[in-house]
Amino acid sequence: MNPRSAAPRRTGARRAAPVILAIDAMVLALLLATGPAAFVWLDGSRPSPLVAVATGSPKPLPGGPVGTGTATQAPSPIVPSVTPAPTATITYGNGTWAPIPSMPRSLWGASAAVLADGRVLVVGGSAGPSSTSALDTVEVFDPASNSWAVAAPMLQERAYPAAATLADGSVLVVGGSRDGFPLDTAERYFPDTGTWVSAGVMSAPRTQATATVLLDGRVLVLGGGAQGSPGFASTNTAEIFDPATGTWTPTALMSTARASHTATLLSDGEVLVAGGASTYHGPKGTVVATAEIYDPKSATWHSAARMSLARYHHMAALLPDGRVLVAGGWALTTNSDKSLASAEIYNPATNRWTATGSMATGRARGSIAALPDGRVLIVDGVDPAYRVMATAEIWDSATGRWHLTGRLGTAVMWPALAVLQDGRVLLAGGALDAVAAHETSVSTIFTPPAP
After folding, report:
1. Which residue ranges of the chain lie beneath pLDDT 70?
2. Domain count of the chain?
3. What is the pLDDT of residue 89?
4. CA 358, 361, 362, 363 torsion: positive or negative?
């Protein structure tokens, strides 16, 4: 099975755990025995009923905190801290990664969201090679004290969820996978009370989807895997969550089904969606080079120019001048496809893609961060030989070129990544191999070099 896809289903009985585990073990053994293979996550989760309001008392992680870092021995609600408000000052250094205390537990495939007070919320993920090990855990990093704390768990375990910080400071978490099937549920975290509440049910289950906060505060959620084994099919549906009413509203369909795509909020409030695959898992999917743009005002899609290459599990970032940088990914869903090193830029004003400098090496399923000074950092991921990567590169808009910067102390895939308010970059956890057979709790912070 190709770890690059996963599809959710909304109805139907859940598979028995022994069968799922047996399938997972067989697939993992086959991949390891047949040479280079794409990283594996066997997605698909059946949602269980969610209560309307979660208790504010978080439960301890199984076995207690893991790792060598500082963490509370018992979880506590997240309350406003003394972390200073955002500052215009960017912290520069020598472009290296500095180790910090480890996360409370090892995981990969989590999602990260920056809170209004500067702390970073890391939610969900997996403690094993598939969503049968999906987690409900929530961990919070405080840059002011350089420490981790355990917060109230989510209402449901979620591997590979999407998360977005809303205008009121709450965090919306949607979809993901559990027990091999995508999820159609959503929930919302309120930092001031440390509680989770149900955010309703989406029109379709989604894993490896995107959640984009629009200029009016609503959230556009689209694509992702919507069907479990054997098809692992992606969806072309899209819907909008309104934080004011807590309701979901379906919107216009995309022209094609996509998972592991990118969605970028443009300067004018529209959303550029690029690439993706027709399946979120397995070798039978088709990867697309198409792009389209969603207009929230008219609730319609219009086509954009095609990328030069089909890409999925690629990376995208909005540039200060309103253009969008896209880099890396895979062009095929086969286990032998090599990660792409090429990068290109979309200009909304001209509806054109233009090639820019290539990365030092091909990279797929990497992490991307738009730095406050306009440069773009890409780190970790899977190289053309299906090895996880420790390298990092910075793209400079002044030259259109990539420059290698400090290496990670540990090569990882799919860690949690967030840009801190002072411009530094937090990286935490991740898989230690391309099939996610091992995870880590290691955390580190990148201090960018001066331009």
Report:
1. 1-88
2. 1
3. 85
4. negative
pLDDT single digits (tens) 41-97:
334 333 333 333 333 333 333 323 222 233 333 333 333 333 334 445 899 999 999
Residue 6 falls within a domain, yes or no? no
- The pLDDT tens digits of the residues spanning 175-194 come to 999 999 999 999 999 999 99
Q: Are 225 and 279 in contact (CB under 8 A)?
A: yes
pLDDT at 303: 98
Q: Is residue 2 part of a domain?
A: no
Sign of the four-CA dihedral 294, 178, 136, 61: negative
pLDDT of residue 336: 79
Other Cβ atoms less than 10 A from the Cβ of 421: the count is 20
Encoded amino acid at 277, one letter = A
Q: In what order do the strands lie in the sheet with 219-222?
A: 210-213, 219-222, 238-242, 247-251
CATH code for the domain in which residue 414 is found: 2.120.10.80
Output the pLDDT for position 88.
53
| Domain coverage including residue 298 | 17-49+64-71+82-447
What is the 3-state secondary structure of the chain? CCCCCECCCCCCCCCCHHHHHHHHHHHHHHHHHCCCCCCCCCEECCCCCCCCECCCCCCCCCCCCCCCCCCCCCCCCCCCCCCCCCCCCCCCECCEEEEECCCCCCEECCEEEECCCCCEEEECCECCCCHHHECCCEEEEECCCCEEEECCCCCCCCECCEEEECCCCCEEEECCEECCEEEEEEEEEECCCCEEEEEEEEEEEEECCEEEECCCCCEEEECCECCCCCCCEEECCEEEEECCCCEEEEECCCCCCEECCEEEECCCCCEEEECCECECCCCCCCECCCEEEEECCCCEEEEECCCCCCCECCEEEECCCCCEEEECCECCCCCCCCCCCCEEEEECCCCEEEEECCCCCCCECCEEEECCCCCEEEECCECCCCCEECCEEEEECCCCEEEEECCCCCCEECCEEEECCCCCEEEECCECCCCCCCEECCEEEEECECC
Tokens for 266, please give them: 């443009």
> What per-residue confidence (pLDDT) applies to 292?
98
Q: Report the C-alpha gap between 20 and 374 in whole angstroms.
A: 45
In whole angstroms, what is the distance from residue 238 CA to residue 224 CA? 10
